[in-house]
Amino acid sequence: MRLILFVLKCAVGFLASVGLLVVLLAVAAGVAWERLLDAAPTEPEVPPRAVVAVDLTRGVSETPAVSPLQRAAGETPLVLREAVDAIHGAADDPQVKALAVRAGRGQLGMAQAQELRAAVSDFRESGKPAYAFAETLSGGAGGTIHAYLTSAFDRVWMQPSGTYDLVGFQAETPFLKDALDKLGVTPRVDQRKAYKGFADRFTADSMPDPQRENLGQIVDGLMNQVVRGLAQGRELDAGRVRELADTAPLSAETAAEAGLVDTLGYRAEMRDALKETVGGDAKAMPVDTYATARDDAAREDAPRVAVVDAEGPVTAGESDGSAFMGPRTMGADTVSRAVRTALEAERVRAIVLRVDSPGGSYVASDTIWHAVKKAREADKPIVVSMGNMAASGGYFVAAPANRIVASPGTLTGSIGVAGGKFVLDGLWAKLGVSFDGVRSGPRADYWSPNSDFSEAEWQHFQESLDETYADFTRKVAEGRGLSDAAVAEAAQGKVFTGRVAKEKGLVDSLGGFRHAVGVAKQRADIAGDRRVRLEPFPKREDPFRRFLREALRGRVASPAARNLAEVAETLRPLVDVVGALETRGRLRATPASERVAAPGR
């Protein structure tokens, strides 16, 4: 009995200690909250002689990190549109004397590089120097894209030990037929049409000729853009650039001798040289800090343009990811609701839908397509801005928009469908596993991986692919105002660069996000020199806060997660403070004017 009482006392003591800890944390959080509220955050100031510094080694993302916890976990990628706007703004800022970019590493897509390249070109037109530095420009296609970007600068510095990887682009696909045969897995998949490529990954052992032709045109098209850019930016003959590419990777010395690099040296030496050019008292200012410091807020009564971000594979339901790392999928419910909400908002004059997606669920894509179509029918302009990729379902959702804008290096198209299932009965037999059961009807096991399609079911599946493909092409023809013949030629699963897609009528104009905003202003009869507010739809929500809310509503299944949420709720004031300090200035204004007619670079 005494032992039982002792155990109970220990348990009560432990629970009391935990309760006291929670109370102390809550009190500490409350005190910290009050003190931080009394301390007004210090706005960063632009030095009288500033050098805006852009570090691409962090990588580039389309949208900012939402959660303060995510930002605290490590250095976050550079937000493309914020960096581009800041560089354009720096061109007209008398306090900014130069631009310095660190390149060579970090995830960067071709379309993103082209948006940055256009911003650098605009900056150079102001007469201010723009320097680029890279330890090395290596890494295959990544090195090629970074090299392409650096060609837009006045001077390019490279570390003497670096290499210049102007090797070009490669597109390859794994073919799993033999592996699946060995495992006893039967792929029962198909596609529409020959260029789609999905089913062939599982049913063929090499790339079919139509896909080889299509992918060859893509990598050649991207390389042509790189060669033109390097020839123009470095004042070289295009034939000479191709000769150099054929012998790449190049040593830093060879790249310098060829005129691809201006100076071999180290980053500290580049900084010293830049200071000599603009003045020794010049101070470097990270582009993120500069973007926050810029006083570019439009008037409260400025016309508003809604911005809806549609990133990642298209899925049904909400855009999702992990609770702490933010959304990574294009959820049909989230994106379609955002478009509808923007459509209903009286203050919103136009909508820009930024798409960066390889496609996904056809049904989910159709949900977003319907919302975009309704926006167009309501006579509120909706303009699609394509990022690195807007293919298959990513193109489908864009089709009914008033205008589609893509960068020359955007990968788009892939108008086709594919689907099916994998039959695992051979695998189960190898493992000695058998299944048995009952069913309510002859097709209850239609999608079961444990049984093959019957002949009638396979025919039914083929008919569904035909119907889906016909629906896809019909909606593209209606949305883009193309003839059935034109769509039939551009479809078949073919993928195009943005430049070729424009020639096919799938894209209206070439340019980046800023160009798309300019087109939206034009469609909404907003003067080109008038500022507008860019308002995100839906409002970005901290995933940590969402996690707490869902947990407290009982929507988090794990008891441990609920307990954690209850304790973490006491720290919410601190999270609020961090969010308030780090998200100032998220609602940016566009520059005074947009060069709507400017061709994409």
Structure, described:
- By secondary structure, the chain is α/β, with parallel strands linked by helices.
- Helix content is 46%, strand content 17%.
- It is built from 23 helices and 24 strands.
- Strands 12, 17, 18, 19, 20, 22, 23 and 24 form an eight-stranded mixed β-sheet that branches.
- A hairpin with a 3-residue loop joins strand 14 and strand 15 (326-327).
- Helix 3 packs parallel to helix 4 and helix 8 packs across helix 9 (238-246).
- Residues 1-8, 14-41, 322-326 and 574-601 have low confidence and may be disordered.
List the helices and strands and how they pair.
Blueprint: H1 2-38, E1 50-55, E2 60-61, H2 68-73, E3 78-79, H3 80-91, E4 96-103, H4 110-124, E5 130-134, H5 141-150, E6 155-158, E7 163-164, H6 177-183, E8 186-192, H7 200-203, H8 209-234, H9 238-246, E9 250-251, H10 252-258, E10 263-264, H11 267-278, E11 283-286, H12 287-293, E12 304-311, E13 314-315, E14 321-322, E15 326-327, E16 330-331, H13 332-344, E17 348-357, H14 362-377, E18 382-391, H15 393-396, E19 403-406, E20 411-413, E21 417-423, H16 425-431, H17 455-480, H18 484-490, E22 495-497, H19 498-504, E23 509-510, H20 513-523, E24 533-536, H21 543-552, H22 559-569, H23 572-582
Helix pairs in contact: 1-23, 3-4, 3-12, 4-5, 5-8, 8-9, 13-14, 17-18, 21-22
